[in-house]
Amino acid sequence: MAIEKENKKVSGNTTGGLDVESNILNAISYLFSFGVIIPLLIYFLDKRRDVRLEAIQAAALGVAGWVVIALISILSLISVAIPFIRSIIVVCLYPLAFLVIAVLDVYYAYIAYSKKTHIEIPVISNLVKQHIH
């Protein structure tokens, strides 16, 4: 009994789930949001409400990034008849989209690590809150 109490004091996590501080898990969720799998693993493995909310929001951000890439791909396929337009799409839009996604992921990971408050992403936060709560 005394050993269990000492273990709870050392771990700092008495609510269940992963034994990592919430700001670190939130930062990991956003940093790997484009892969979508890491935020979903954190969502299912951790039981803390704030960590789960940030993880599912990071997964939604990753899905939004994939949707943008898919739209650029569709635009590239449509413009196959006009080689100049297609080359602009492939040479400029793909790298720009990946760069913007990477910068957003790093920015939100930094904010999640440095602050203990919930991150508000303009469209994604509202959609996640509607479907989760």
- Helix count equals 6
Global structural class: mainly alpha
Number of strands: 0
Which stretches are low in confidence, meaning pLDDT under 50 for 5 or more residues running? 1-14
Biggest pleated-sheet summary: none
Label the overall shape.
Answer: elongated
Whole-number mean pLDDT: 83
- In percent terms, what proportion of residues is strand? under 5%
Domain module count: 1
Radius of gyration: 19 Å
Encode the helix/strand succession as letters: HHHHHH
Question: What oligomeric state do these chains adopt?
Answer: single chain
Give the % helix: over 70%
Distance N to C terminus: 37 Å
Structural summary, described in words:
There is one protein chain. The protein is an all-alpha fold. The chain has one domain (20-123). Helices cover 75% and strands 0% of the residues. The protein is built from 6 helices and no strands. α2 (22-31) runs antiparallel to α5. The longest helix is centred in the C-terminal third of the chain and has 32 residues, at 83-114. The radius of gyration is 19 Å and the shape is elongated. Mean pLDDT is 83; it is low at 1-14.
